[in-house]
Amino acid sequence: MALSSQTLTVTPENVANHLRDQFASDPEWLLARRREAMAAYFALPVPTRERTAFNADRSGAITGFESAPVPADLPLPVPETRGGVLSMAHDRVLVTRQPAALAREGVILTDLRSACRMQPELVAPHLGSVIDAAHDKSQALNAGWWHNGGFLYVPAGVRVADPVIWLHYHLPDQPGFFPRSLIVLEEDSEVVLIDYYSEGENGSAPVSRTLAAMTVEVKLGSGARLHYGSIEQLSETTDAFVHRSALAGAHSAIFWNVGVFGAGVEISRQSTRLVEPGAENHSVSVFFGSGRQHHDIDVVSIHDAPHTVSTMVGKGVMKGRAQSVFTGITEIRRGARGSNARQREQTLMLSDDARADAIPSLLIDENDVFAAHSASAGPIDQAALFYLMARGLSEEAAVRMIVQGFLAPVIDNISIDDLRQQVWVAVERKVSE
Amino acid sequence: MAVNNPMVTDDYAYGFNDGDVGVLKFGQGLTRQTVEDISRIKQEPKWMLDFRLHALDVFAKKPMPRWGADLSGLDFNKIVYYVKPSENQGRTWDEVPQTIKDTFERLGIPEAERKFLAGVSAQYESEVVYHSLHQDLTEKGIIFLDTDSAVREYPELVREYFGTIIPPEDNKFAALNSAVWSGGSFVYIPPGVTSPIPLQAYFRINSENMGQFERTLIIADENSFGHYVEGCTAPTYNSESLHSAVVEIIVKAGARMRYTTVQNWASNVYNLVTKRAVAYRDATMEWVDGNIGSKKTMKYPSVYLLEEGARGMVLSIAVAGRGQHQDTGAKMIHAAPHTTSTIVSKSISQHGGKTTYRGLIHLAPNAEGSKSNVKCDTLILDDESASDTVPHNEVETAQAIMEHEATVTKVSEEQLFYLTSRGLNEEEATRLIVMGFIEPFTRELPMEFAVEMNRLIKFEMEGAIG
Hints:
The complex is a heterodimer. Chain A is of the alpha/beta class. Chain A has ten helices and 20 strands. In chain A, strand 1 (85-89) and strand 2 (92-97) form a beta hairpin. Chain B has helices at residues 6-11, 32-41, 46-61, 98-107, 109-115, 135-139, 147-153, 155-161, 172-180, 413-421, 426-442, 447-461; strands at 24-25, 83-84, 120-124, 127-132, 143-146, 185-189, 199-204, 215-220, 225-233, 241-243, 246-251, 256-264, 269-279, 284-291, 296-299, 302-305, 311-320, 325-334, 340-349, 354-363, 371-380, 386-395, 401-409. By secondary structure, chain B is α/β, with parallel strands linked by helices. In chain B, helix 10 packs across helix 11. In chain B, 25% of the residues lie in helices and 34% in strands. Chain B has two domains: 2-299, no CATH class; 412-466, no CATH class. Chain B contains twelve helices and 23 strands. The interface between A and B is medium-sized, with 36 and 34 residues.
C-alpha cells in the first residue's frame, strides 16, 4: 500500500520552494503566512519543559517533513451519525458529509484548506488570530506546515442539533502529523463538535517515530456556546505537541471535554481567554497514562473581563511507569471583577512506578473575586478493593470497577452521547492493557 | 541618617534608629579578602575558613534564581558584609551599650525577659551582643549560644552538622551566607531533655546597606523537645538591605522541634532565607512562620522526612503591603514510609502588595503509607493588590495520599455587613475578619508574640479602608 516516500531536506533557503510544491493549491496569502511561520520555526529554539525530559536532539532530528503520498481510497471507519462528518488522513480529505439542513442555515463544514480557497474572507481574519504562530517552535511548525484540518462556521443564531464529528487519522508510515482546525461561532450560535485523533491502520509498516503538532483555534461570538470534545489515541511512537485555544466573547460559553490516552510523549496546552463580560470556560480533562507514556498537560483559563466564570477539572489515572504533569493555571487579571474560578485535580495511582505531578496555580490580580483549587492523589482504596473481592470479583474486575467509579463523575457528565461512549471505550482499553 | 526622613518614620513604627554604633565596619562589596578578614577576626579554625572560601566560589558560579520575587534591585557590590557592634559580648544587661538597650526596650525585650525569658540572644548588627542563659537550661545540658561562640566552644559538635543540611551548593543565597555568615544561634538539646521554656533570639539590622547573614544550627537529639523563637524587626533605611539567613535543623528519632519566626523587617530589606530541617524516625518538625515586613521575601521552610513515622508541619502567614512581595511557602519531602505532613498557609495582600504561595510536596517512591495535606487561603483586601498560588505536587507512589486546597477571596461582604450592622465601623469589622482569618496562626505563637503579632497586623491594616 505504501508508495515511495519523498525525502525532503527543508532549510531556511529552500523552504519557500518546498512550501510551493507541498501546498500548491493554497492561495498566495496563505503561502505567505506559511513562509512567515517557517521563518519563525527555524528561528525558535526547541521547547524545553521543566518536568518533561524532552530530548531536543531527537525532536530536532524528526521534522516530519518527509511524507508518503496518501491514497484516496482509504477504507477508514466513518461513524454513523445524522450530524456532519469530516474525515481526513493528513492532507487527504476522505469524507465530507454536511447535512443539507445545515447548509441551508449557512453552516459551513469543510476542510480548512478548501475553506481558505473558497471562503478566504471568512477564514483569513480568524486563522492564526487565536494562537500566535511564533508562540513556540511546535506552533510555528504547525502554522507553516499544517497539512489540513477542519473548518466549522456557524452563523449568528443557528443552533446545530446533532454533533459534528471530525476524524483526523495519522497513517503509520507518516513521520509528521500536523492537523490544524478552526472553529468560528457567531453570536448566539451553538454547536457540539467531537474531534478525534487516531491511528489510521492502512497495512503499511510504521515509522519508528512520529512528530505531531496539532492545533485547534476557537472564536466565540457573544452568547455563543461550543461543546468541544476530543479524544487523542495516537500511537506511543508519537511525540505530540497539542495546542488548543479559544477566545470567548460576552456571555459565551465553551465546554471542553478532552481525553488524553495516546502518544508516547504529549505536551499539550489548552488556553481559554475570557475577554468580554460574562464569558464562561468549563474544562474537563481526563488523562490515562500507561507503559512509559508521559503526559504534560497545561490547562489555562484567563479572566480578562468582569463576571467571567471558569471551572477546571483534571482527572488522571496512572499505571505502569507512566508519568503525568497536570498544570492548571487560572489567571484573573485586574479589572475582572466578580469573577469566579475553580480548579479540581485528582489522580488515581494504580502503580508504584508511576509518577503524577500536579501544579494547580492561581494567579490573581483582582480582589473582588472568588478563586479556589484543590488537588489530590492517592491509591486505590484497599478497603473498597477488599469489599469488591469479597463479593466474588477478581482483583482485575474490582480495580476496573474502582477506576470506573473514579472517572464516572466526570465522564458521565459529558453531555455528548457519542463522546461519552467513546471515552468509556478508551478507558476500558487502557484498563485492560 | 534615615531617621530624619519623615516619609520613612511615618510609615514604620519601629523605624527608630540610634545612629551607627558599629565599632568595626567593613566597606561595601565582597572579595576573597573580605571573607578571609571575617574569618580572621573571628579567630576561626581553618576548616571554617576553607568552608567559607569554597562557598564564595560557589556563590560566584551560581546564577540568580529565575523565578520568585524580582531581585533586580539587589546590588551585591553595595552591601556591607560584616559589622561588629561592640568589642565583647554583653554578659549582663548592664554591660550592653545604652543605645542598643534603648532599641531593645522599644521592642519589648526586657519585659519579655522579666516574665520568663531564659535565653535572650539579641542579634544587633552582625554579632550577638547580649546573651543570657537561664540556669535551668545549662543544668539540663542544653547549649544555647551564638553560632560564632559555638564554633569556638563546641568545634566537634558544630563541625559534625554545619552545612550538612543546606550545603553552599544549594542555592546562590545559601552560598553567600556560607561565605560571610556571622552570628545566629546554635542550639543543642541532649537526648530525652525537654527545654522548659522557648529559646528566644531577637534579630535586628541597624546599619544602612548592611547585609545580615546569620547562621542558625539546631540539633534536637533523640526524644528531646525544644521551641526556638526568632523575631525580626529592623529600622527603616533609604537604600536596600539584604538579609540572607541559613537555618539548619536536625530532629533526631522521637524528638520534636518547633521553630517560630515573626519576620518584620523594614520595607527596604531583601529577605532571602533558606530554612530546612531533617526529621528522623518518629520525629516531628514544626515551622511556624510569619512574614509581615521586608521588601521582597523568598522563604520556603522545608522538612525532609527521612525515616519512618516522621512528621512535618508548616503553619505560615504572609502579609504584603505597599511595595512588598512575599514569595513564601513550604516544602515537604516524604522520603520514608508512613510520614505525614501538614501545611497551612494564610496570605493577605493589601495596598498594592503581592503574596505568592510557592510550595512543594514530594512523595518519593518509598513513601508508602504517607499522607500530606496542604491548605492555602488568601485574602486580597483591595483592588490594587495581587496573589499567586503555585503549589507543586509530585507523587511517585501509589501508596500515599496527597491533598491540596486553596482559596483566594476578598473580605466577605456578608461578614462585613453582619459586623457593621452590629455597630462596628468598616475598618474595625475588616480588622476583626482579618484577625479571625489568621487566628490559626496566632494561636500557635507564644503569648507575647501573639500580642506583638496582633499589634503588627493592626498597624499594617491602618488606612486599609478608604
